[in-house]
Amino acid sequence: MRKKTSLTIVERAMVLVPEFKDRALKLEHQVVLRGQSASTLNNYIRCIALFVIHFEKLPEHVIEDEINEYLVALARDPNAPSRSSFKHMVYGLRYYYRLLGMNKKAIALPSLKQDTKLPVVLNRQELKMLFSAPTLLKHRIILTLIYSAGLRGQEVINLKISDIDFERMVIHIRQSKYKKDRIVPLSSAMVIGLKKYLSAENSLVWLFNGKEPDGRYSVKGLSWVMRENLKKTSIAKSINLHSLRHSYATHLLEQGLNIVTLRDLLGHADISTTMIYLHVAQCQHITPHSPLDTLYGKALHKQA
């Protein structure tokens, strides 16, 4: 007997308002043409689908007062774990209206303040504790590699064996966020562990084999590795997998790396994103002085 499959939120919206199917397709094409990620597309379409289901009509047919009432209710929802649902809805609707050339409706939506939370960073002792926690070599390699190269979760699962260049001591990260390639240094401390791991694994293409349909590891799997091994430590900070990337960036700044080079290593499109780490890095303070004082050495000779 065939099991009944429940409709997704997007499918329900299409059944309720058939015209939404055309809008969703148009939205998908625009996201692809702009080179934005699949997760961005899914977030936008899902939010707009929820909006369509609520009003039982397309967003362009909903008046401003009704939109504001809906958004206020969403922002005040006690069941929402954070304001993320509200924010995603505003971003999705703004994108939708601009796509249809309805800029007035897009501008009328509430403006959103950027979060000012500083990234949580692990200190060196905490990192050593975390890296010694895994019993499986694979898990230890995953965690240390992320920190050693400042990788995003998606970048880790996309790494192929051929992207690790042991001779040139670099890692080639391909088509990451913003559809950009970049090269980052391969830590000499990682080489022994990586070679030992590769000799024990039967990897043919992907650096980390997993249960995804194409044989890759999953980002959820990476997060699980982080969570489970974190439990074995005494680290009390509220951290996640991305905290390893934050720690990488902060520690490089503290070791004297300039902000422009760090931006390139992290693959940021805008240097303002990288500058958040200046607020958490404990960099050595230099006493204000005139550059003339050091032009001819440590100090100037007094003139008569």
From TrEMBL:
Keyword line: Chromosome partition, DNA integration, DNA recombination, DNA-binding
Protein name: Integrase
Matches recorded under InterPro entries: DNA_brk_join_enz, Integrase-like_cat_sf, Integrase_catalytic, Integrase_recombinase_N, Integrase_SAM-like_N, Tyrosine_recombinase_XerCD
One Pfam family from the record: Phage_int_SAM_4
MF-aspect GO terms: DNA binding
Coiled coil segments of this chain: none
Biological process annotations from GO: chromosome segregation; DNA integration; DNA recombination
